[in-house]
UniProtKB/TrEMBL annotation:
Isopenicillin N synthase-like Fe(2+) 2OG dioxygenase domain ranges (all copies): 197-296
Signal peptide: none
SUPFAM superfamilies in the cross-refs: Clavaminate synthase-like
Protein's name in the database: Clavaminate synthase-like protein
Transmembrane segment boundaries: none
Length: 370
């Protein structure tokens, strides 16, 4: 086996010293997953977390911190490339919803009066290395693709498969119900993301209300977010509607539920509303680098409610908004690209009401939150 490519060390930013209103999130311990009793306990734990908060932490997921650090180092090296080099990897059809590759900053107008735009850069990597999608990469990514694939596969087997198993148990379905529609080697729009939020000056932050990305929901099943010590993520409590900061926890993943999970459970599990704000004052001088994984069912899965679930039947969650309106129920692929096209709309002022409440498919109207 060849030696790992040298990426240099990765040093995390020091955590904020400010006292912030942190969200009270629970931690799901996957060390208990190995026994039937442990899985039953965790399933109850998971569904309660999903229903009450929508965000939770996961620990003991059997991926080394060294492997995580190397992925952050890869992201850092990618963003150190000159802009003209990164722009070579913008996907064709970005405006039509294509998203794998480099998405440059500045597509959204934050302050029309000053011309201030977003400073969010994204590099998405389609993680199924089976030929379904032709994906060109810069050398720093290409040279490390085997390691990236190993990392992506381990996220699938060590985190997503257990979570989907626990969700099935909680809904009184066969344990493999959700894993069967989230197989790594079947075509889906799963992807790994390196994401960079470049800093603003205090004056610029004030001019946009300290709000970097407005409240929104993710479009897939689960989103996995690796520990990021620059505090900026906030979630909206689904019960009280209050906004709370998400505290970085050592050796954990932060996980949230997304749109497709809401469709499949007819709203029993809600897609979690979250936003990104300016960091506290002692962290506003640094950029914020993120490492994320977005999970989605297979492309051909039709997003109907899971009517086989005794729990959903008892609780009356048997039809989602598409089914209730008797409109065509989209496949995962149809919904993914409709929402991605909406997300990638260029040169739209952040407060444009037509954009913020756009109907992206018959039966589904988007919503942007404060």
């Amino acid at each position: 086996m060849s030696a790992p490519v040298s990426l240099g060390s990765y040093t995390y930013v020091e955590e904020t010293k400010e006292e912030l209103p942190w969200a009270d999130l629970v931690t799901l311990d996957l060390a208990k997953f190995s026994t039937p009793e442990g899985r039953k306990e965790l399933a109850s734990f998971l569904i309660k977390a999903l229903r009450e908060k929508g965000f939770f932490y996961v620990k003991n997921f059997n991926i080394s911190q060294e492997a995580v650090n190397r992925q952050f180092a890869l992201g850092r090296q990618f963003y150190e490339l000159p802009l003209e080099e990164k722009l070579k990897y913008v996907p064709e059809g970005l405006d039509q919803g294509q998203f794998n590759g480099y998405v440059p900053a500045g597509r959204r107008v934050y302050n029309p009066e000053t011309g201030l735009r977003d400073r969010v850069e994204i590099y998405n990597i389609y993680i199924e290395f089976n030929g379904d999608f032709k994906h060109n990469h810069p050398k720093i990514i290409q040279d490390n693709l085997p390691e990236i694939e190993t990392f992506a596969r381990s996220l699938h087997s060590e985190v997503l498969d257990p979570l989907h198993t626990l969700l099935a148990i909680a809904l009184e379905l066969p344990e493999d119900y959700f894993t069967n529609i989230h197989k790594y080697d079947v075509k889906s729009e799963d992807h790994l993301r390196y994401m960079k939020y470049s800093k603003y000056t205090p004056e610029e932050n004030a001019s946009i209300g300290n709000l970097w990305v407005r409240g929104h929901t993710d479009l897939g099943s689960f989103t996995l977010l690796f520990r990021q010590p620059v505090a900026a993520l906030q979630i909206r409590d689904p019960i009280t509607q209050e906004w709370w900061w998400v505290k970085p926890q050592d050796a954990t993943l932060t996980v949230n539920a997304c749109d497709m999970l809401s469709f499949l459970t007819a709203g029993y599990v809600k897609s979690t509303i979250h936003r990104v704000v300016a960091p506290p004052k002692d962290q506003q001088h640094v950029d914020r680098l993120g490492l994320l994984y977005f999970s989605r069912p297979h492309n051909d899965v039709v997003l109907k409610a899971v009517k086989e679930s005794p729990v959903l039947q008892r609780e009356g969650f048997t039809e989602n908004q598409f089914e209730r309106s008797e409109l065509s129920v989209p496949t995962v692929e149809e919904f993914t690209f409709a929402k991605q096209k909406w997300q990638r709309t260029k040169d739209i002022p952040r407060d444009d009401p037509k954009y913020n409440t756009a109907t992206i498919l018959p039966g589904f109207t988007e919503q942007v939150y404060a």
